[in-house]
Amino acid sequence: MAYSKTEDPDSDPKAQTQANAGATVVRYHFHRAEGIAESQLKPLKGLSELFAKDLADAISTITRRRLVLNGVSLTQVEPLGIVAEVPNMPLRFLLELRPSGIRVLLGLDSHLVFALLEALLGGKKVQSTNPERDLTEVELSVLRDIDQVITQEFLKTWQAELGPSFGLGSRKTTLGPDHLDPFRDSLLFVCLDLSLDGKAGKIALVYPVDVVEAIGDTSARQTQASSSAEAESSARKVTFEGIRASQLVMEGCLRDSSVRLVDLMDLKAGDLLRLDSSVAQPIDIRLNGTSRFQAEFLGAGPKKAIRIRTVAAAE
C-alpha cells in the first residue's frame, strides 16, 4: 500500500482516476465517508472555528503582521492518512484534555513555522534550503511566546464552551498521530488554513474519536445544570410571590436614649418624659425585630408618617 502527497481523491474522482491510470503508485483512500454523523461533529467544528479566529487575532498582535484565517476543515481519516495530510510538522504539542484524559496532537507545518520566525525576527530570512528541517534550540526559544498563545487560546475557547472545570495539560513533543490512544479505527483531523503576509501555512489538530463523546457528555451535564438552576430560580420566584402579601411587625426605636427606673416608676398620665436624644436624631425602623431603615417622624394630614433616610445593609 502506498500513497503520494498530492491530489485529494475526494476533490475530483474523474481526474484522479485518469492520473492513476498511468501511475505506478496510487494513493490509498484514507478518508472515511461513513463513521461519526455530521451532526455529532458540529460542536467540534464550531470549537475549532472559534479557536482559529481567536488564535489568528492573538498571533497578529504578537507578530504585528496580519495572520489571516482562510478556512477550517474537519474530516475523519484513517490513522496512516494523517501523515499524508500533514507531511511535516516541526512544531508539535501534545495536549491532554482534562478531566477526560483524552490526548490531542496539535502541530504547525514548516511553512507557517518559518513564516512566524521571520516575523518575530523582524523579517530576517530564516528558512533554509530544506523547509522540512528540524528547528534549532534558538528558534524554539524565539517561538516560546507563540507556544503559550496557542495553548492559552485553546484553553480559553474550550472553557468558554465546556465551563471552568475544563483543564488542559500541554508539552512539546516529537510524537506522531500513531501515539494517540485510543484512536479505534479512525482519527478526526482538523486543519486550519492560515496565511501570514501572504505565506500560506497550516495548523493541524488530530483528535481521537472519543472527543466527540466527551464534548457531548460535558454539554449534556451543562444543559442539565442549567435546567436545574432555572428550576431552582423558578421555585424561588413562586415562593417569593406567595409571601409578598404577608404582614410584618414594624417598630420605631430611638438609639442611645435612656431613662431612670425611678422616673418610670413615678410616671402618671400627662407627665412629660424628656429623653437624651436630639429632636433631629433619626429613629430605627425594625421589621420583625431586625433593623432595616433609619427614618424621621412627619405628619401626613391627620396621621403620623415616617420618611426613610437610609436603608441598612443586608447581612
Structural description of this entry:
There is one protein chain. With 315 residues, the chain is of the alpha+beta class. It folds into three domains: 1-29, no CATH class; 31-223, Chemotaxis protein chec (3-Layer(aba) Sandwich); 250-267 and 277-311, no CATH class. The protein is built from eight helices and ten strands. The strands form two sheets. A six-stranded antiparallel β-sheet has the order 1-5-6-3-2-4. A four-stranded antiparallel β-sheet has the order 7-8-9-10, with no helix packed on it. Helix 2 packs antiparallel against helix 6 (144-162). The radius of gyration is 35 Å and the shape is elongated.
Characterize the biggest β-sheet.
6 strands, antiparallel
The end-to-end distance, rounded to whole angstroms, is: 74 Å
Q: Report the portion of residues in β strands.
A: 25-35%
CATH architecture call of the largest domain: 3-Layer(aba) Sandwich
Find the structural class using helix and strand composition.
alpha+beta
Q: Let me know the average pLDDT.
A: 75
Unreliably modeled segments: 1-17, 26-30
> What oligomeric state best describes the polypeptide chains here?
single chain
Q: What's the CATH topology label of the largest domain?
A: Chemotaxis protein chec
CA-based gyration radius: 35 Å
Name the CATH homologous superfamily of the largest domain: CheC-like
